[in-house]
Amino acid sequence: MKTIVLGIGNPVLKDDSVGIKVVEEVKKRAEVDVDFMMSTDLNVVYKLMGYEKAIVVDGIKTGNEPGTIYVLSLDDLFVSYKFSSSHSLDLATAIKIGYEVFKDEMPKDLKIIAIEVDDANSFGYNCSESVRRAIPEAVKIILRELEG
């Protein structure tokens, strides 16, 4: 099954970089297409098109405990979530547009691994401690998804 793992975030904004950090670790452990984006404009749709399965990793801000990991399906995504979005178009909206316009070309199996962020707006190369501790568990979840 043609699969991509896509990390979204800004490498110089503390917790906003978590999607990139997780996917970098997945790349070391699995033979799968990986890619990174700093924004979730409509280019995210083009990155996902043509794949049967996609796992997207991004930070999310719901007000829950930083480091909490959510595994969201396509159905979950169509509910309004607020991703950490230093991006130009939030992830949910970009993907919704993709499925409305390019339904037959979008992945039939899409999972979002969202990690609750604490500070996604301050400059820094390191995630906050609670978010950093969630990275290995997020990697394990993705590796299980890739196996199953």
Which descriptors apply to this entry?
five-stranded mixed β-sheet; 148 residues; alpha/beta; 5 strands
Any overview of this molecule?
With about 150 residues, the chain is an alpha/beta fold. The chain has one domain: HybD-like (Rossmann fold), CATH 3.40.50. It is built from 5 helices and 5 strands, in the order βαβαββααβα. A 5-stranded mixed sheet has the order 2-1-3-5-4. Strand 1 (about 5-10), helix 1 and strand 2 form a beta-alpha-beta unit. Helix 1 (about 20-30) crosses helix 5. The longest helix has 19 residues, at about 130-145. It is globular. Mean pLDDT is about 90; it is low at about 85.
- CATH architecture annotation name: 3-Layer(aba) Sandwich
CATH C-level label: Alpha Beta
Q: Major sheet: size, sense and barrel closure?
A: 5 strands, mixed
Low-confidence segments, ≥5 residues, pLDDT <50?
83-87
Anisotropy-based shape = globular
- Indicate the radius of gyration in whole angstroms: 14 Å
The number of E-state strands comes to 5
- H/E topology pattern: EHEHEEHHEH
Question: How many structurally independent domains?
Answer: 1
Portion in strands: 15-25%
> Going across the major beta sheet, what is the strand order?
2-1-3-5-4
Q: Roughly what is the average pLDDT, rounded to an integer?
A: 90
* Number of helices, where a helix is a run of at least 4 consecutive DSSP H or I residues: 5
Distance linking N and C termini:
11 Å
Spell out the CATH superfamily.
Answer: HybD-like
Structural class: alpha/beta
Share of helical residues: 25-40%
Would you tell me which CATH topology applies?
Rossmann fold
